[in-house]
Amino acid sequence: MIELLLNALGGISLVSGLFFMFVGSIGLLRLPDFFTRLHATSKTDTLGIGLIFIGLIFFSGPTQASLKLVLIIFFIFFTSPVSAHALAKAAFKGGVKPFQINTKKDHKDG
Amino acid sequence: MAEFLISAILLAYLVILSIAIYCDDNLFSAAMLMGIYTLLCAAIFVAMDAVDVAFTEAAVGAGISTILILAALSLSNYHKEDHHNIKKNTLQTTVSLIITFALGILLAFGFHDIPAYGQQNVPAYQGVAQHYIHQSEHEIGVPNIVTSILASYRGYDTLGELTVIFVAGITVLMLLGYGLKQKTNNLPNTIELQKYIVLRVVSRMLMPYILLFALYVQFHGDYGPGGGFQAGVILASGIILHILFYGHKQTQKVIAPEITCYLMAIGVLIFAGTGIVTLLQGGNFLEYNVLNPNNPIQGQHWGILVIEFGVGLTVAAVMLSLFYSFSKQTKD
To answer: How far from the centroid of its chain's Cα atoms is residue B96's Cα?
Structure first.
């Protein structure tokens, strides 16, 4: 009974993690600018990986592997947003301009 | 069925990725794509149950190799606009295409004779491999058979690998040196602190755990995937993290480039020295049994421990010295 519950929770976490990774990939493909794409992928990928690993923890139960998975989740939560921050800083320093809607044209027409 | 599907999907990704690397004009993004390629190869190795190889491939390919390529690219005069000016030479591309296709067909002919994955009546599995798999527990007593083969049964080959890494390190030192003597733009440290505060704080928090993990991998190689090569690469990655966010001046107070020269040589000396010690004790070269005549298995453990330490030391020193050579030569 408890096994069924653990498996079900693991399955739900895996599927939701998969959903977030999918959303992040759609954002990576469809968003217009580097900074917006970075924003989408960093948030969704961190959350997606966290959820997938929580699902794996449910599947493996109270073993040494679960402890290692918890440590990996901590590491990912620390490093993934910081690396996104480093990317954004490097891009800003390198001169990548954020995407701007062309407001001058609206003024001219209107 | 599921394994076949996973392997097929990963291999299809590899093909798509290689086409993407070819079509990409920007060398920096091509370098990143090559890092992803290596990571996919590591996933394929895991799917094939070769975790030691996958570990080394992920650590070296997706970590150190990518950052060294990026450092070398920033060292060169590469600007993104340059590639538009290169005229396409159709004769050159046609000839190279024909040669590549011919080599690919030769490769396909070569692969035709290789036995299927997992077959048992193949020459590679008969003979010595049977002895290693069945006798490793009694003769060496180390749970991880990969480590026992790498460090004890085939220790001489590992000494050769280590010497190759050492020679590569020396060659880069001879060609590039440790950087220009004068640096024109040497900002003091306190100005940088406010600009890079997030990166510095987090890297300072993470670095002890990365180095600790490297030590764990070094000495855990007997029981799980690990060993000297992976540990050396992870150690070098931790120190490179510090260099990236704190600059060369801070890091060289701890590990000067000249020290890495000595560490490179000391690692190889430890490995070969163990062989000489076993010679002096009366056994063959790298026969660890004679290190402890009362308890040969303990002698094997001692031998594996010492040579893995030598391997880790040299690999870490070589990777660090390569990064020093590539990164200190930038014009700013």
So the answer is: 30
Cβ–Cβ < 8 Å for A81, A44: no
A interface with B, Cβ–Cβ below 8 Å = 75, 78-79, 82, 85-86, 89
Q: Which helix (H) or strand (E) holds B200?
A: helix B197-219
SS3 of B8-71: HHHHHHHHHHHHHHHHCCCHHHHHHHHHHHHHHHHHHHHHCCCHHHHHHHHHHHHHHHHHHHHH
- Quick check: B203 pLDDT over 90? no
Single out the residue of B264, B79, B35 nearest to residue B172, CA to CA: B264
DSSP B183: -
Q: Determine whether the interchain pair B202/A78 forms a contact, defined as Cβ–Cβ distance below 8 Å.
A: yes
pTM: 0.86
Q: Is the pLDDT of residue B193 over 70?
A: no
Q: Which of B33, B38, B61 has the alpha carbon at shortest distance from B233? A: B61
- Number of A/B CB contacts below 8 angstroms equals 16
Q: Are B325 and B173 spatial neighbours (Cβ–Cβ below 8 Å)?
A: yes
Residue B18 pLDDT greater than 70, yes or no: yes
Q: Nearest CA of chain A to the CA of B20: how many Å? A: 15
Count Cα neighbours of B208 within 13 Å in the Cβ-side half-sphere.
3
- Mean per-residue pLDDT, B185-196: 56
Q: What's the confidence (pLDDT) of residue B83?
A: 59
How many angstroms separate the CA atoms of A49 and A55, rounded? 10
Query: Are B212 and B231 within 8 A, CB to CB?
Result: no
pLDDT at A48 over 80: yes
Q: How many residues does chain B have?
A: 332
Q: Can you tell me the ipTM of this complex?
A: 0.82
Tokens of B255: 């590990």
Q: Which helix (H) or strand (E) holds B140?
A: none
Please check the confidence at residue B234 and state whether its pLDDT lies above 50. yes
Residue B70 pLDDT: 87
Percentage with pLDDT > 70 across chain A? 93
**DSSP assigned state of B114:** S
Interface of B with A in 195-214 (CB under 8 A): 196, 198-199, 202-203, 205-206, 209
- Whether residue B202 and residue A89 make contact (CB cut-off 8 A), yes or no, is no
Measured in angstroms, the CA of A82 and the nearest CA of chain B are apart by 7
A85·B199 Cβ contact <8 A: yes
* B198/A82 Cβ within 8 A: yes
Chain A residues within 8 A of B199 when measuring between CB atoms: 82, 85-86, 89
